[in-house]
Amino acid sequence: MKGFLSVVLLFNSLGCKAHSWNDRSMVYGFDNIEPSANLTWTPCFDDFTCSRLEVPLDYSDTSLGTTSIAFIKLAGKNATMESPSIIINPGGPGGSGVDLLLTNRAIASQAFGEQYNIVSFDPRGVNNSGLSLDCFSGNTEARTAFSRLHSTGVTNISSTSLEEQYYSSSIYGEWCNNAVEKESPHGFYVTTPAVARDLLTFIEAEAELAGKAPSDAKLWLYGISYGTVVGATFASMFPDRVGRMILDGIADAEQYYDNDYSANVDQMDEAMEKFSSFCHSAGPERCSFWGPTPANITARMDNIILQLKNHPVPISEVHSRGLPALVTYSDLKALFVDALYVPTASFPVMADILHQLECGNASALAGKFDGLGVTFDAGHVIQCADSYRRNKLTSIEEFKSYVEYTVSKSKYIGDVFPIFVDSILCRSFRPQLPDSMVVQDQIIGLDRPTSFPILIASNTIDPITPLISARKTSSRFPGSILLLQEAVGVSCYQISITKPSQIRV
């Protein structure tokens, strides 16, 4: 248990040196590494080794050709060629595991022990791996125009906002469909089941490199957020290939494949309410928005929300000759979304901004909502390819019902969450994928246990990947263990120290 806690707590620790196992020249980019069907490790980025593993575009039709998946490894000081590799599966979809491990290299030795090698990767369509797709084909003006039409603010901010977001969403899918048709015929071959098969290819190639039977290879995985969908998918497809698996900060895989994110709002307001109690407990010296009671803090925050909803704040920047801005209710809601990911780090910042707003200064919120726009396509392409046969959000009636539900569940986040996740963008995608690429029927649900029980971890109050999803996932995998940490925030991002008495199994 202690080792697991280190995984959660040490994302920002000190770096560790890796051992290179060959004499190839050091490289600092994956373009300098030749893809290979064999697992060939090249020294890279000073402390790591890298590989581009060649995999089939479609495992059911190898005649279509191949693509390459970027892997990066940090070797443990006491690791050997036969040591298991623990694969860190990034969040997203669209998250880069290469960047994750480069930025947080200490997680390897410090969290898991020096006897293991730590590996991460960029899934299909992401960063250094193949099949990346630019839906607007480099046309920044078109992307900006779409964003202006679609990002109208929180979904219920006006009488027409919901309709504008729904109808404009079709533009995005049409551009992506066209980009695949004209430039990247296999650009939609980036689904999560395909990624699960890529991981199977990796562990078999690694076993072969170590002189072991590929058929005996087992996956050791630490999955984060969307990475838990990858882990759950792999465990459902290949239950006898699960070695050690930790799924941390659970996304409901079944709802994910249905393009249904309604469960995600389950604990948002519960987490937001903790802001008031934490701020009051911290005292006026440590919380700039302090009040004599938590109820006082909540009431003042609610008043700011109401004031900003009715009266946006213009910022002229006339004296500094900067760009003018209009701070809106949507900017404030974007602040709340950001704060919920890591409350221990973000709540003090949110308190400072709320204090400034109360004093009449809104400049810290300027442009906050703009950061929620579609700036890169990988996440949405994967999300929409995964759900295209099961998408439960295609009509305006379904979109309206979804928005009404999220608003009813969360007064603080519910109205911004639909545009934050932006799952409505998937309604006009037409991937035309083979059966091997998509989820068939129910993905989560086994009639036999995995070869080793899965450890499922969650905070007791998780505003993005809620506890309800962890409980549901655990119930679907026989023999799995649910580990709860009494903390607030997204479990996989939690970096505050937790006492052993706060851990429950």
From TrEMBL:
Residues 1-18 form the signal peptide. GO terms for molecular function: hydrolase activity. Coiled coil: none annotated. Residues 84-269 form the AB hydrolase-1 domain. It comes from the Eukaryota. It comes from Trichoderma asperellum (strain ATCC 204424 / CBS 433.97 / NBRC 101777). It holds the Pfam family Abhydrolase_1. This is AB hydrolase-1 domain-containing protein. Gene3D superfamilies: alpha/beta hydrolase. Keywords: Hydrolase, Signal. The keyword Phosphoprotein does not apply. Belongs to the peptidase S33 family. PANTHER family: 2-SUCCINYL-6-HYDROXY-2,4-CYCLOHEXADIENE-1-CARBOXYLATE SYNTHASE (PTHR43248), AB HYDROLASE-1 DOMAIN-CONTAINING PROTEIN-RELATED (PTHR43248:SF25). InterPro entries: AB_hydrolase_1 (IPR000073), AB_hydrolase_fold (IPR029058), Serine_prot/Carboxylest_S33 (IPR051601).
